[in-house]
């Protein structure tokens, strides 16, 4: 049976300690298995960016999909460190834009969070897509794919070795390590992206990367549970097998926006994703009620109950 998660409503929740405590209490009371958080370091003002990039992704967030400088993004690793003290749930970053960050620092922060939550962290990571955000944090956009692979390899060594020496295209580590190391050695690394909406072939390279180096796939919001998913998982598992990995050990996390699907559509999608072998069902209840309200709490309880019934 899939694990049932709840997406953290970063752009809707008030920016206060009290609001965070109320939200995690609702998640605990509803009995979710894990919570997940999305990530952006910066939001940029579309009107002030250079020509030549895709501005349609940066329109005001009327459907809670696109984002700009007006949207709130609570920092995932810091926030989860706080939430870890308030419950026994698991945690997923879905996804952390790894290629905008210092690799050793992410390894250190993730290790600390894994300690605080007693080894219940899945580190979901992605390469990112917003060139304007990359430029604003001083990260190179064009090399992010190659850097991403190297970052994952280096983080795993930091998590499993006392002293690391590493020479790569982007990193040089000479006899250094992080302490304390995490409970999980290594922390599971799940990879996001690979939108199969237009078919499997255009994203075959991204899917193979999941099979080669990932512990699971975090699907995009709005991904449909159809035969393209079966084809995508076949690509992932084939790549895993070719690289000497166990294909059965690679998970599938499906994020379902109830606002987009409606209640009936949500229930149908839970059943469909379960039939496709999803190991995790991630409920996005954003936009349904005021975060922290009794209506929101009741809505979350009902959605978790439906998810458990339809995935049994």
Model description:
It is a single chain. By secondary structure, the chain is an alpha/beta fold. The protein has a single domain (3-311), classed as Luciferase-like domain (TIM Barrel, Alpha-Beta Barrel). It is built from nine helices and eleven strands. The chain has helices at 17-30, 76-83, 103-116, 131-136, 144-160, 204-213, 227-242, 258-275, 294-311, and strands at 3-7, 34-37, 90-93, 96-97, 121-126, 164-167, 172-176, 189-192, 216-218, 251-257, 280-284. The strands form two sheets. The chain has an eight-stranded parallel β-barrel, surrounded by five helices. The chain has a two-stranded antiparallel sheet with strand order 6-7. Helix 6 links the parallel strand 8 and strand 9 (216-218). The radius of gyration is 19 Å and the shape is globular. The N and C termini lie close together (6 Å). Mean pLDDT is 93; it is low at 57-64.
């Amino acid at each position: 049976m899939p694990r049932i998660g709840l997406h953290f409503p970063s752009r809707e929740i008030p920016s206060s300690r009290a609001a965070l405590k109320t939200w995690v209490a609702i998640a605990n009371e509803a009995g979710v298995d894990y919570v997940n958080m999305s990530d952006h370091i910066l939001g940029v003002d579309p009107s002030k960016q250079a020509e030549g990039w895709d501005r349609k992704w940066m329109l005001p967030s009327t459907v809670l999909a696109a984002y700009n400088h007006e949207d709130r993004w609570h920092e995932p690793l810091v926030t989860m460190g706080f939430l870890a003290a308030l419950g026994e749930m698991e945690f997923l970053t879905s996804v952390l834009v790894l290629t905008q960050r210092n690799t050793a620092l992410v390894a250190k922060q993730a290790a600390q969070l894994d300690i605080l939550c007693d080894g219940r962290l899945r580190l979901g990571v992605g390469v990112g897509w917003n060139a304007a955000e990359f430029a604003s944090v001083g990260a190179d956009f064009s090399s992010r794919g190659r850097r991403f692979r190297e970052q994952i390899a280096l983080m795993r060594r930091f998590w499993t070795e006392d002293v690391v020496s590493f020479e790569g295209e982007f990193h040089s580590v000479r006899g250094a390590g992080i302490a304390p190391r995490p409970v999980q050695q290594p922390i599971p690394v799940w990879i996001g992206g690979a939108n199969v909406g237009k078919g499997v072939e255009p994203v075959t390279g991204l899917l193979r990367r999941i099979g080669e180096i990932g512990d699971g796939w975090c699907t995009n919001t709005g991904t449909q549970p159809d035969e393209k998913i079966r084809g995508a998982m076949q690509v992932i598992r084939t790549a895993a097998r070719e690289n000497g990995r166990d294909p059965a050990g690679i998970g599938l996390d499906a994020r379902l926006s109830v606002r987009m699907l409606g209640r009936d559509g949500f229930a149908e999608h839970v059943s469909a994703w379960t039939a496709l072998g999803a190991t995790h069902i991630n409920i996005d209840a954003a936009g349904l009620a005021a975060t922290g309200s009794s209506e929101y709490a009741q809505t979350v309880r009902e959605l978790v109950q439906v998810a458990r019934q339809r995935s049994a």
